[in-house]
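Form 7-S
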Amino acid sequence: MPEHIKLAKGVAQVDWKRISFILLGLLLFGVVYFSPAWPDAVDPEGKNFVLTREGKAALALFLLAATWWVFEVVPIGVTSIAIGVVQALFLIRPAEIAFKDFMDPSVWFIIGSVVIGMAFSKSGLTKRMAYKMLVMVGEKTSMIYLGCFVMTATMTLIMAHTAVAAAMFPLLMAIYGLYEEDERPTKFGKGLFIGMAFVAGAGSIITLLGAARGAVAIGFFRDITGREISFFELSEYMLPVGVVMTILLWGYIMIFFRPERKTIPGLRERAKALNASLGPVKRGEYLTIIIVTTAIAVMSLRSFIPGLDLINKSAIILVATILFFMFKILTIKDLEEIPWNIVLLFGGAMSIGFCLWQTGAAQWLAIEWLTLLKDATWFIFVMGIALFVLVMTNLIMNVAAIAISLPVALVIAPYLGVAPEVVLFSCLVTAGMPFLLLVGAAPNAIAYESRQFSSGEFFKAGIPASVVLMLVLALFVAVIWPMMGMPVTVS
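Output:
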């Protein structure tokens, strides 16, 4: 190159969009935090619920975190760190409490679930299951979607949806590797992983084994109404909802994430050859199956054997983690590959959830919302409660959403002539399907690890899916559940 020719220096591009959303989050925080005191919420019995300075600050912090999470202005795990930092700096909760939530047993359960997925992948079970499924469902991408979703929903009947998502994740990665050689995002990839997260929620409502929220809700129901809901009674009413939602979500994914290719020519033969190349089942695969099956069996028996429910499920699943390393199925290198961004995301979700709960902000919101419905018809009242739970379960853990809203709703319901059963089941349906935010459920966060979609894309995909969910629930509340014998009104 001639000496008189000089290359221009590169100009650093300023990401104004990112800066705008950073400032928007800070602005929302400042507006709410520094606003004058908000009025008390008053329940139908005249009891006042004060929104304290800490409660208002918790709402401000949530707006900041939600904005940064949705628009990913920083890694989602870093936004979670900010949640703990702001609580400590603004004296919302003591630092030792705010940061302790990051190591809550629920976060450890997610770590244990992720490690199970790693063991499936490392032992070779994931590839074996993926190839066998592809041989069964064939080469049509629509049927691959359906096969994956049915498998996900079926597994949630007997194990927690978090563990199911963690086990399905490497299997879906293996399938996606046969569709696209690199990890470049595609519509098929988005549909595969977002669909898996959605369907894991739909399947988890069917039995008490799919998630802890069912047992918590039934406990509140028993304490307030004096009536027991059995394992099979719950499944009787929730099974048709879960099945309908799984089918509709498949159709929804096929419309909004229609794969670039209708078929993958030669996939079935390729899957057969790859499956044959794996040879007989190896020691590591047998050990993984035994360890995981035993852990699932013990966690499942907690619902049936008195006394066993005293053992924390996180401790049970972490026994599996320890055994994987004792039997050298996993090594220190695998331990270092745990997706800490996702773990931090859930740690932050737990921290903001407990923050809203312990400061009284969540209860204040619940009272404000439910008292708006005190003069509504029974149908509007039920759907209004379900909508509130749907919103809250995207913001905080679904068990907390149930704990906040269900007791108040069950107290108000008799005044409006609404049967408590329809309130309980409606809340459980929406609590199980947080389709908007990654923090709404662990399967959402695990699916995000695929890097096939951004949190903003997940949010946009979740809006129509949530509308579909509410329409399905309305049909069940107004028509199908009464036909099945569920009481919806009382005289």
